[in-house]
Each structure stands twice: as C-alpha cells, then as structure tokens.
Amino acid sequence: MSQYDPPGMPGPPQPDPDHLLARRSVRWTIIGVVLSTALALIGLFVQASQSGGGTSAGGTSGGSSGGNSGDSTAGSGDTGVTGGTATTVGPSESVDSADDGLTSAERSLRDSLNSSQWQRESCEHWTAPDATAALRCTVSTLGGTTKAKIATYPSKSEVQEVYLRYTARLAEGNCDTTQNARGTWHENDTSTPAGDMACYWAGAGQYTIFCTYYDRPALFEVDGNDPAALTDWWHTVDPVFTSSTG
Questions:
Q1: What DSSP state is assigned to residue 113?
Q2: CA separation (Å) from 177 to 141, 149, 168, 227, 228?
Q3: What is the average per-residue pLDDT within 106-133?
Q4: pLDDT of res. 59
Q5: Cβ–Cβ < 8 Å for 128, 172
C-alpha cells in the first residue's frame, strides 16, 4: 500500500456548537410561546366562565327588574307622555292630561258634571274663545243620547258678553214655541230664571240651543237638525252640574 492514500468519501459534518445553542434557544422560545398561549387561553376561559355566570345573575336581576317594571305599568294603569316623557299612572293616581287630552281646568269641569247623564269618559276638548275650560261630551237622558258642549269662563260678565255676541240680533221670545229667539230658562219648573237662553238656526242647517247659568260662569250648547226634537231633549237634561256655586 502506498504511503499516500487518496481521500475517501467525506463523512457527515460535525455539529456546530453555536448552531446547537441557537436551535435549543428557538425550541425553548417556541415552548414558551405555546405555554404562554395556553395559559392565556385558560385565563380567558376562566374569565369568560365567571363573566358568563355574572351576566346570567345580572341579566336575571336586570330582566327581573325590567319585567317587574313592565308588570307594574301594565297592571297599574296606562303610560302617558308629557313633554316627551313617559309617565306611569296607577289606579289611585289622577290621570295625566296626555291620557285624556284635557287640561287640569277641563278635568275639573268634567268632574263637576252630572255623571248620571253626562258620560264623563267621553268628554273631549272643545275650542271656545276666551273660555277657561270647554268640553264636548256624550249626554244620555230619557229623551235620547246626543253630544253637548259645556264651557266655563273667568267671570259671569264674560259669559254674558259671549251670550250677547251670538244672540244680540234675536227677538225676545220663548224657545218652546218660537225659533230664532232669546229669553230665559227655568230649572225644575220654578218661577225663578236659572239663566239666559237662546235658540236659533246656525250654519250648515244646525239648530242651536244656547243657555247660561246665573249661579256660575258657565255656558251650555247643543246642536241638532230637528228643532222640536232638540227642544224636547233639552228639557230632559237636568241638572247639568252636580252642585250649585255662587
């Protein structure tokens, strides 16, 4: 054999210590990331479980509160809106004006009407110039059912001004026997006049009976297309108010 042998096939390269350290570092980094991620997921799971339990309890409480509020509203009365604000009204509370469309003065007038004839729940706002309160309500008597109007004013003198404004051109007369007349009316067949009265044809073929009260600043009006039937019905309206005032 010769002293110089040609080199054979090269063997596998020897590992580089620095390279081995780098690989170990990467491996531990990956392991650290995996552990951190796992811990984070466990933390999120625990937090979600706790949050879910809290939400369930809180949701139940909130739902119960909301349900109770809803039940209270439904069971106690209607909800009204005043100035954009909803107001819950109970059975023992006064009804808000937004529920019936009336002002406090109109509700006071409504409550003073004779409930045996005037259907108070039917009363609605009526526009009457210069009136403190004015209503249009369904009135049922032995003579039948129709709509009548009632208004109150700041003083009796103002009622008289309104009365004269509409009746000044009418002749004196008795509305039981004459149309387009003005005079006085008597309550309960007494000889003492209870107020002024007028009856006349208004526009649109409507016959009007118009009367005032000497004991209060109020005015009554009813309209119809049959003068005789309207006059007969008017005689069955008694009394309009539950009590007299000075």
A1: B
A2: 22, 23, 19, 10, 9
A3: 96
A4: 37
A5: no
* Digit-coded pLDDT (tens) for 13-23: 455 555 444 45
Task: State in Å, rounded, how far the first CA of the chain is from the last one.
Answer: 153
Taken as a whole, the chain contains a residue count of: 246
Strands 79-82 and 85-88: antiparallel
Phi–psi pair at 103, nearest 5 degrees? -85, 170
Specify the DSSP class assigned to residue 187: S
H-state helical runs in 77-128 = 97-100, 104-111
> Is 150:219 a contact under the CB 8 Å cutoff?
yes
**Would you give the DSSP letter of residue 95?**
P
User: For residue 167, how many C-alpha atoms fall within 13 Å in the half-sphere facing its CB?
Assistant: 27
86 to 62, 82, 181: CA distances (angstroms)? 20, 7, 50
pTM across the whole model = 0.59
